[in-house]
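In practice, a research group might receive sequence data for several interacting partners and want a quick structural hypothesis before committing to experiments. The following worked case mirrors that situation: the sequences arrive first, and a predicted assembly follows.
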Amino acid sequence: MVFRSEEMCLAQLFLQSGSEYDCISELGELGLVEFRDLNPSVSSFQRRFVSEIKRCEEMERILGYLLREIQKANIAVPEEDESPLAPPPRQVLEIMEQLQRLEMELSEVAKNKEKLRRNLLELTEYTHMLKITRTFIHSRSRHEALGPQYEEFPTMETDSVSGCTGMQRLGAKLGFVSGLIQRVKVEAFERMLWRVCKGYTILSYAEVDENLADLDTGEISKSVVFLISFWGDQIGQKVQKICDCYHCHLYPHPENDEERADVLDSLRTRIQDLNNVLHRTEEYLRQVLQKASESAYTWVVQVKKMKAIYHILNLCSFDVTNKCLIAEVWCPVSDLANLRGALEEGSRKGDATVPSFVNRIPSNDTPPTLLRTNKFTSGFQSIVEAYGVGDYREVSPAPYTIITFPFLFAVMFGDLGHGMVISLFALWMVLTEKKQNKKRSSNEIWTTFFNGRYIILMMGLFSVYTGLVYNDCFSKSLNIFGSGWSVKAMFTNQNKTLQTNALLTLDPNFSGVFSGPYPFGIDPIWNMAVNRLSFLNSYKMKMSVVIGVVHMSFGVVLSVFNHLHFRQKFNVFLLFLPELLFLLCLFGYLVFMIFYKWLAFGARDSSQAPSILIHFINMFVMQGKDITPLYPGQMGLQIFLVIIAMLSVPVLLLGKPLYLYWLYRGGKGLRRRRGYERVRRVSEDDNSTAPSYEDDEEEGVDEVTNREFDFADVLLHQSIHTIEYCLGCISNTASYLRLWALSLAHARKFSTNNQFTLSFLCSNATLC
Amino acid sequence: MAACQELSFNVDHGYLEGLVRGMKAGILTQADYHNLAQCDTLEDMKLHLQSTDYGKLLSSSEEDLSVSLVDSKLRENLVTEFSCLRSNALPPLSTFLDYITYGYMIDNVVMLITGALKQRDVAELLPRCHPLGGFDQMAAVGIARTPTELYSAILVDTPLAPFFQDAVSDSNLDEMEAEILRNKLYKAYLESFHSFCKKMSGATGDIMCPVLEFEADRRAFIITVNSFGTDLSGADRSSLYPACGKLYPDGLRLLALAEDHEQVKAVASCYTDYKAIFEDPEPGSEFKSFEDRFFEQEVKLNILAFLQQFHFGVFYSYIKLKEQESRNIVWIAECVTQRQKSKIHNYIPIIQ
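A structural hypothesis for the assembly, expressed as tokens:
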């Protein structure tokens, strides 16, 4: 972790045609540079390498299909530890061909399989139909009505009962339509049949016991077998159409029982055959997929890399005369050598006659912020980035976060036992991180924990520390060094109070009762004190205000480094000083009072100790002559501090805009004269972090006023900043009280928890 | 509770309204159309559409790109979005969304009837039906010979049944009759939808009524213009005009009397909204048919629906805008494949 973000420079890469692909691939593996788009005006489909990208997308599509099929077949795709390099362009066609062949083969087999499956389903449906319709016919011949019959036409019912032979005798042609329909559609189907055919049909149906898969969608659902008997061709056509409309699967209805038996027999053998063939096809499909799954991972990564390379190449501009591609990149200055090495490697791989090379070019644009992280700091960096990414070369707050963040957490979570649990959990994650990394868990909650494992570890360790300070272990105190308090001294003179009172106040003024402070943390005797809570309250509240003010002042001080680095010395006087004065005069003084009270009042005169809150309020309203001052001259000092704080606000608000305006109006001639000097000096002293020139004020201003100077704009910005800062000081100080509140809540919650569980266990024990 | 509908709106419909507003943000902008119009092939269009909310819609298919494929994919997309809305909707929003589909159902029924008259196979016709207006009994429509039969046998179970009150007749269905049937159904549908929206308290009525009135008036104009040169008399015509528009009743009476295009224009000139639509194009500007101008006007009205919150109009408007967008994309695709670059800019921009 570094103090500032990395120094960057703009560089031009000249990539010789022929080796550009290898060069970019090489750079991509290193991840050194950020490319700039050199043809922003060209729309995405008019760029140079669109056809290659399209090819990659085609491959991605095939791969997607392949992976879906592999997943459907429940074959695991083995992942390799190392990600494969992007394939050289020559090899791309080979992969493409392989993929296309696989796709053809797969789709053919899949189509075949689909056909077979469909066939099989049809045959099963047919068998079901035959079996069930037989019961219709038989039950009818026994004069039993099965399924709904139309009451309005009792004569027809009796007619149909005798079956087809009876109807043939009457001379009318009786037709049968039979098939399967989905369960949900039966009622609508029946209604429509009734309406259209005016009742000249008889519908009987029964549900199939098994759940059958739908032919087209493969959905498993209940189906119903139906048998429609009708008279006449006209009606027949209508029935046919209605069946079509409801997507019924129709099967020919056998004339008599012998035929039915024959058909059933032949169906059985055919189903058996089909099952065999289907089984074999599936096996073959599995083999193909198994083979494909071995290289699927490599392909996916390779295609992804290839596509990324072509996307990068699309950002480059093409130089016609030099036969090379020109790319502009942001690169860390310290990595320029690596960049050169990568390009050489790339040219060597691409067999280019002329090597590709780097050319550093000057630029006025603000470079991107690069903060290098490792596995330990990346978590903290991402916490900082959740609030915003700093400007180029700004002081990075992340290194301090490594301490402050876990510490502030620990202040709230101070408990030795709990901290231990957390740190052990984090330690386990840290020790097994290699194994866990490999697993690539997709569980979002787990990855959040895992990515923050070092943060959690630090939080745990700090909690252990603050737990020791609070002397809390699972909200019980540890008595390591022996308490500094002893009630023994009070026993000697045999006074009655001891016998008559259940509670006893340990009086530190009594010699021998208090033998000196506990060596580390809070004395364990407080654990049994009745006024423990009010003692801890007062202690933790004051502590959190102290921590908060120190923390805020530290942040303000950090800004000095920015002002000095960007050579804006005026900011130190016009921003930093008023900010610091405002903070310290008000809240710094509060901290002073806290310490003063701790130091000035001992056990003897503790009853006269004043309330800091009253004094602080009085400071603002400038009253309080009627209460005794903490120290002589308090009134005068307080009024002085308040006036300083109040005065620093207008300085903060107006100082910078007015100063800039003044410079803009008056400093013009001055700046022009020094223009050349400045450029030279800046280029010479590029690396100096905090240079001090005698004229660096003007130089800083120079940078500011180089752009159009808009007074209203600057004023607006500054007023927003001022309001934000002043309100922030007050509300943040109040917010830091949350440290106290949450710490208290944590401790109280667990002590009540303990009480409950203990009393519960005790009552259980007595019951037993 | 009618007075504070806004207070409780979000309880039932807040999620869907948010959803539809989010989807509306994905409607192609002028810049997107500009880019699309620059394309030389459908592949280019696919590449560009990838960068919009359509994403991988076109690239996931294995077949070669064609205009009809683009059309069906876009329609599929719309139907997916609509069914997502519909399946999450609670009453009365669900009824409202159903009302949207009825219009498509009417079109489907009429298309199937005309198809059946031309002896086309149902299997060939079904894929051409708009999937938003799909219903179970659709395939059986061809069986009917008369509107009465159509009603009593097939459509009585469908939500279209109430619209048949005026349309029931025993005359044989021919092409003319089918067209009349369509208009009668549509008239009943629009009037019913209009009164439904009016009954809804709050902003829904305020937003939807102008849109539906516009739709009614547009139908009236189009019926009139299309009837010139056919044997449809003025009285017959007036029975087809939806009676919920701004034209009702005086404008419709005048329209029924109109004999040629000039007289229609005279009627339109009495109404500020429609005056511009029938005006002669300014010299120098591109020629636009009055249908296109109606579309333009419709888009404008539908965009307005998004200015207010807590009403159902956004759902209707979103569907209509998305439909217009599909038409635009298909138009551009058509121009691209047929190399008619000069006409490519005749689409109707939705969001400027």
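Before designing any experiment, note the following. Chain B has 15 helices and no strands. Chain B touches chain A through 25 residues (CB under 8 Å).
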